[in-house]
Amino acid sequence: MNESAATALVAPATSAEALPWRRGVVWLLFLGPFFFLSYGFANWWAATQAVPGIMLFDWERHIPFVPWTIVPYWSIDLLYGLSFLLCRSCRAVDTHALRLLTAQLICISCFIVFPLHFSFQRPATSGLFGTMFDVLAGFDQPFNQAPSLHIALLVVLWVRFAEASRGFWRLLTHGWAGLIGLSVLTTYQHHFFDVPTGALVGLLCLWLWPDDALARPRRWSFTPSPARRRIAGLTWRRRCSALLRARSADSPGGCSGRPSPLAWSA
Fold this sequence. Notes:
Layout: H1 2-48, E1 54-57, H2 70-82, H3 90-113, H4 127-139, H5 149-163, H6 167-186, H7 194-208, H8 226-248, E2 262-265
Antiparallel strand pairs: 1-2
Helix pairs in contact: 1-3, 2-6, 3-5, 3-7, 5-6, 5-7
């Protein structure tokens, strides 16, 4: 009688432990095709726009092209799949997947609404690194810039791997994640503006889908204060007006004609 009861208690636990990785595979079977379809669509859409914009700081022209950094740049694809193996419960799998999905939805939406173009010419590269760049160019184009989806996903993956590692492995995680973040610049895939905006998207996803389900924002409501609503409305109007002025400026210096360290051309 006691053995039967013990068996009944152990069996569900074993089944529950085997479930998370299977759930992760199901999520990957959805996220993988969705990534290529939505990312490809955004690339196609940007290519159809007559004059895609450029966000560029003058000092970025001094950033060197480092061919070997294509290795850490590509490694995020492997880490993307492995990250689901670090989830120890079904809820953790769902939370992690929702973070990745939300990051992609936000970034792809921005790519479509504000199409940007990478302005540097990538030097010719041969050998293994050149092959990796050629494969990348097979599905990626110099669009889909800000916010950087690569960086947004990196933030989500970085947190997942850091939580699952200790000691030397955690230091290695931080070092490699930092190298991936740097690689988006040294492979001439992104301008600097794309990096902090992508990081903000990643942090937003972590906030929207915290590990503690009880901490998730359940109710969104407008502030009852008329004064706060006026301030918020005024702030957004000013930001939109500044954005429109920047996009319509004839020169990088804007309407005043003075040189600016930040150039947005359209």
